[in-house]
Amino acid sequence: MKRLAPLLATAGLLAGALPLLTAGQAAADPADPAAVQEYGPPKPAWHRCSAEQPAAYECATLKVPLDYHKPRGRTLDLAISRMKSPDPAKRRGVLLMNPGGPGGPGLDLPLMADGALPRQVREQYDLIGFDPRGVGASSPISCGLTDAEKEFQRAYRPETYASDVAWARTVADKCREKSGDVLPYITTRNTARDMDAIRSALGERRISYLGYSYGTYLGAVYTQLFPSRTDRFVLDSAVDPQRIWRGMMQVWATEAEPAFARWTRWTAERDADYRLGATPEAVSAAFWDLVARADRDPVEFQGQKVTGDDIRRARPLFFTPAQAAPLVSALKAAADGRPVPHGAEAVDAAHLRAALGGGAAEPSSDNAAAVVWSVLCGDTDAWPRDPERYRRDAERDKARYPLYGDMASTIKPCAFWPRPAEAATPMRLPAGVLTVQNEWDSQTPLVSGQGMHRALRGSRMVTALGGEGHTVYLSDPGSCVNATVDSYLTTGRLPARDVTCTTTPAPAQRRQALPDRAPLPFPAAPRLF
Q1: Which of 236, 442, 470, 479 is catalytic?
Q2: DSSP states of 498-514 as a string?
Q3: What is the pLDDT of residues 407-421, one digit of tens each?
């Protein structure tokens, strides 16, 4: 959820009254019953984003309605960016991009993707980035949350549950007090409408799209609201539309269990390096003994006190055994008062903070957290409202899925959030999109990607068996999925059937630049979705 690069300045706000489509322009797509009248902003006033950036990297700001039911009412700024096709003769149209989140800024994605896309893809598109509404340079929102209030990965314990309920209520109350007039409109449906406003402002009949993680759900919603304007859509590491959004947190718990079992097998085979046990059962026992000891007496490591709950928060690492084993081995060595084994020496304080979900050492803006809860709570009314329901679910899932079940199912601010302004978007229309998935993805696990594929009739899915890590295309230049995605973006032809390929897990090596392909530099720490 952190910015991929320093926020780039934008200027040139477009003035004047908000124009609606004239009688000669296309009406709103009938698939969107909530679109009272389509909004068409003026053409962007492009300018160089920054003197420190290439002149070809251009920025602009659009005005879009806060509430698309009231297109002449209050507006928000929407910061957009562009890098034109290097070969106008081969240009097909525009490729919008979203990095995930929710709350992930995307203004600088064109600058990054410019060097990551192969030439045959790059020359067909103007690359379009944007900070979604409420994010970064697009009328950012805040709830005034402290760093402690931004932490949502809370372990369930009977003796602390009352304070967890108070935390959830406090976050909802502070968001309502600080940004309550805007929060109901920071939703995926409205961001999809903003994407169509970008399309209209650019004078394009249709858009192509590359969306990661949360951005896959955003793209899917666009295909349902504006099917006739959907061109080539790639949904990488997909959200299951049937699980938004509590179910997407709970799937972290269910799918962590097979990932953990795989980790114990991998680590047992390398006992000489990590000294955690020569059998999967021994590795598992060593891990849970460490968790129990750290809960009783936190482990001093790299200047931090690490609890058992902190270790369980490192859940994403167990989807990549080569990252989890050094951390657990180093923590166990510290708890035992012995030197760190040779295979675990690379763990440093920054790695530890990222693994345990600690984020930046310095206090940071709560913009990302404010957008996360606005979207997660405002997209769907499926969140329970009774705190006792969360208590029961957390108790049940802590027993069923010990690594993360309680943290996934315990209470969240959505229990106290205002009711959503709109219902969730049903996935009823066919959508000929391409979905891409690693087998071992921690944030949008394989079953989630399969859920998106099922939901979008006519889609095709590419699965990288053995693939590790969250996000694939461009972020893993050596992945076996790249050729299929390149072909689709170049020709527009979907594979005749779903594709399954095999990738050897080696993320530390493969995610380095190849001679003809540079990786898209996503943050090392996982985004929420």
Answers
A1: 470
A2: -EEEE----HHHHTSPB
A3: 999 999 999 999 999
Question: Taking a C-beta distance cutoff of 8 angstroms, is the pair 273, 343 a contact?
Answer: yes
* Mean pLDDT value of segment 114-121: 94
At 6 the three-state DSSP class reads coil
pLDDT at position 24 over 50: no
Q: State the Cα–Cα distance between residues 26 and 5, nearest whole angstrom.
A: 37
Q: Average pLDDT over the chain, rounded to whole?
A: 88
Res 344 pLDDT > 90: no
**Active site (annotated) includes residue 309:** no
441 annotated active-site: yes
Number of Cβ atoms within 10 Å of the Cβ of 272:
10
Residue 281 tokens, joined: 């059962």
Task: Count how many residues are written for the chain.
Answer: 529
Q: Which of 179, 200, 213, 329 is catalytic?
A: 213
DSSP class of 303:
T
**Is 196 an annotated catalytic residue?**
no
Catalytic residue among 32, 240, 406, 441: 441
Rounded Cα distance between 27 and 468, Å, is 44
| Residue in 135, 126, 123, 153 with CA at minimum distance from that of residue 99 | 135
Q: How far apart are CA 241 and CA 410, in angstroms?
A: 21
Q: Which helix (DSSP H) or strand (DSSP E) does residue 113 occupy?
A: helix 109-116
Strand order in the sheet with 499-502: 47-48, 58-65, 75-83, 125-130, 93-98, 207-212, 230-236, 434-440, 460-468, 499-502
Q: 40-57 pLDDT, tens per residue?
A: 778 999 999 999 999 999
Provide the token pair at 92: 């097909």
Q: Is the model's pLDDT at 1 over the cut of 70?
A: no
For residue 339, name the pLDDT band (cuts at 50, 70, 90): confident
- Note the pLDDT of residue 174: 98
